[in-house]
Design a protein that fits this description.
Blueprint (H helix, E strand, L loop, with lengths): L6 H7 E3 L8 E5 L5 H17 L7 E3 L2 E3 L2 E8 L7 E10 L11 E9 H10 L2 H12 L12 E2 L7 E2 L2 H11 L7 E2 L15 H4 L17 H10 L24 H4 L1 E3 L4 E2 L5
């Protein structure tokens, strides 16, 4: 990590969402990111902090007090474009004894191939992809099983069973709540069992395939985060036109670039 003596320089090394939400996402830049790429992280933190609005109890990790989530972000050389995009996910989770905040992430990492970042920047999808991967750091798809919210993992019909998301899914379908939310059943590790199903939800931000720019963070995703234990503002979600006849979106970066998921540790548990 770059170290700085002056306050102004430290500000360049870290970014915090600019909203007045009590939920704080701190991004700590470890190097290898351009100014535009660092800005994409700040924009992503803003998008999530508008939706997640409840403060979480601070946690001390390695002598540092963290409120609410700290993400280490880095650009590096891995294997060139359209191979391994990088690694993203939570690295430490709150203790299981933390009440409503149980198992919610404290720290995470977002480490990307510089070649893929540059390619996404040229394609105009960088901000959506960074926001998408930040969602995984916050627990979307990465702690579902730990929270008992994923059914049928590895089958042809995995589903998310959180009550809030089930209600929003029914609202999209304009029916009474009855079915769990379809989860991605294609792709390799890092895609299937950890996203909304592309064939159902099209260009929603948290499907497994990002196509063209303009992928909305919908009420469905906001409700899914509430099911994890976050306090959310559903009204702050972005407009999302549900595709009732199936999506016609172009599969994007996660089709071509694999994302490795972290294996987080739970604070307070023996390692």
């Amino acid at each position: 990590m770059d170290t700085y003596r002056a306050v102004a320089d430290r500000a360049r090394a870290r970014a915090v969402a600019a909203t007045d939400s009590p939920f704080t996402i701190e991004v700590r830049f470890l190097g290898g990111l351009s100014a535009a790429q660092r800005e994409a992280f700040t924009v992503a933190a803003d998008r999530w902090s508008r939706v997640i609005v409840g403060d979480l109890p601070g946690v001390t990790v390695d002598g540092e007090e963290i409120d609410d989530v700290r993400i280490d972000a880095e650009g590096t050389s891995i294997d060139g474009p359209k191979g391994v995009l990088g690694e993203a996910g939570p690295t430490r989770l709150r203790p299981a004894s933390a009440g409503a905040a149980a198992l919610l992430p404290v720290t995470g990492t977002m480490r990307f191939d510089a070649a893929d970042l540059a390619e996404m920047e040229r394609a105009g999808t960088l901000r959506d992809v960074i926001t998408h991967e930040m969602g995984h750091v916050l627990g979307f798809g990465t702690i579902w099983a730990r929270k008992g919210l994923l059914a049928g993992a590895g089958t042809n019909d995995p589903t998310f069973t959180g009550a809030g998301a089930v209600t929003e899914y029914a609202a999209l379908r304009q029916v009474a709540p009855s079915r769990p939310v379809p989860v991605e059943n294609t792709g390799g590790p890092g895609t299937r069992d950890g996203h909304w199903r592309e064939s159902v939800f099209g260009n929603e931000l948290m499907t497994g395939y990002i196509g063209a720019a303009g992928n909305p963070l919908s009420r469905l995703t906001a409700a899914g985060m509430a099911d994890l234990g976050y306090q959310v503002d559903l009204a702050a979600a972005e407009p999302y036109p549900f595709p009732p006849s199936g999506p016609a979106t172009e599969r994007g970066p996660e089709t071509d670039a694999r994302v490795r998921r972290t294996e987080p540790t739970v604070l307070g548990e023996p390692q």
